[in-house]
Amino acid sequence: MTENTDLESEIDPLKNEVRNQDSNEVSNRHTETECKKLTKFRRLSRWRTAAFFFVLFLCLIVVFAFSFIIPCPVRPVSQRAWNRTFQNAVTYPFLTLWDANKDKVTDVIFAFKDSSNTNYNGSCVAEGLSPPCAYVTALSGTNGSLVWQRAFAEDVQHVQCGIEHLGGMKSSGCLVIGIPYLLTAIGSYGETLWTLNSSFAVDLSVIGPALILPDLDGDDVGDILIFFTPADQVGSVTKLIFLLLSGRNGDSIGQEVYCNMTEGFVHFSPLIHITNTGAYYILFIEGAVQGVALKDIYVQATGIPLTASKLNAGFLKSDPEWEKSTDPVSRKIKICSSRTAKYLQRVHVFGKNAGKLLISTNDTVELLDGQSLQTYWHHNISQIQGAPVPGYFNVDDVLDFLIEDYIEENKKKVTIVDGKSGKTLWEEDLVYRKNCPKPSSVNTVSRSMFLFWGELPTQTNVSMPEDLTENRHYLFLVHPSHPKVILELKSSTENVIAFTTALFEHSRHACNVLLMGQPIGSEPGPLMIKKQKLKEAISLSTVRRLNKGHDDFSDDEIKKYLYRMRYSS
Hints:
Oligomer: single chain
Distance between the termini: 96 Å
Mean pLDDT: 85
Largest sheet: 8 strands, antiparallel
Number of helices: 7
Shape: globular
Strand content: 35-45%
Radius of gyration: 36 Å
């Protein structure tokens, strides 16, 4: 093979030279291409490195700015407990909770009457009113400081807060309802948004609470349904008057709508009920519970037939099932056959507009299906002491109810009934005292804590002056994890006018709030509002063991377990 090659080279030397030259040219071109590719790659690598360090530099600047230059929002630190005292005052029997100053901590709104002539911002004299005046006051939930205060010439019936876009504002506001026809909308700073034109109600007396409706006049602000009775009405109520108002400016939407009453009402507790078809009904107590379609009120008030109305909203439609039971003359529907209802409550059910209705008479608590109005169960009692308090005692997602029942002289029974069956889940007999505050509840992550006032029979032997014994109240807490014990959180000999337990920060801490002082009609005296974190009250509590069997945990273990509870909204 070598010889043949050499021979070929000798015979044709030029051919071999050409081959070597071509080979060298190809090699050179290949080398040049590789060099060009390497140069481009190096340049691209440099750009990538530069971009990486540039982005890293920007990230460091952003982190540095947010860490050191731009201040983080300061979270308000809520005190474990605070109290605020007002001298020479009498108070109205309600508390309202609402985040007035927008610091994400619930504030306390209440009303009292004061005859002082002091002149300060929000006072009676500063508002140009003659004392005594009614004051609506907002106190900070964090430390009890004054957020705002407003003076009104008339007695206050209700204060309803948290009404979204009231007066066309981006934030929420409050409605102040007074006697005889005070109705004022105020904003989150206590400023007046609008006031009801008194010419609408010159011969009427307003009764609360008001109902907050969807937008009926097309101005993108929810509207209001307010209730009146004739001012000169003597004896039992014979007429109930509906008036639709614009939530933006308080103007009347149409005229008053009169509803003849065959029976009066003991407790006026109207509510909005939505059926499964989305139709709105206004429910109220007229002996038994009655309902009126919102569409009927709207048509009578405005005189505009629904077919001609610009509003094509579901809430102004009818529910075929309910229309079958509606009286063609009075346009009212009887919700239940109970003789005389005292309390009417709507029970939310996830995924169903209609939910359920809880109706309490003097001696029965009855749960109805919110659409078919069929009875789920009824629970017999002796004499109900107040509206049942909802909460979760069982592990399921069905609301249970705490009921206070007056069973005999100086004795009451506190019962928690199953929301599915109406059967008793827990009960305890307590000593009954007059003017005992109403119970409350607060949700934990899985179930609820129930709080109620009273006195254990074993505590009646404690030596105490007779005048204090009659006003003595103990605040107790029961949780379904330890049903054989209750925690005694507080004892009080003061007049507790109103009491509630609520979540003051989302999923953070629950608090007890007490309003103590002299009720309207009494001689003026000190008025005190107190707030205490529930965890603080639990840590200072006393464990009381009931005659329900033995609990295997020590007092400290029970208190630590309940102290570590996480709360839920």
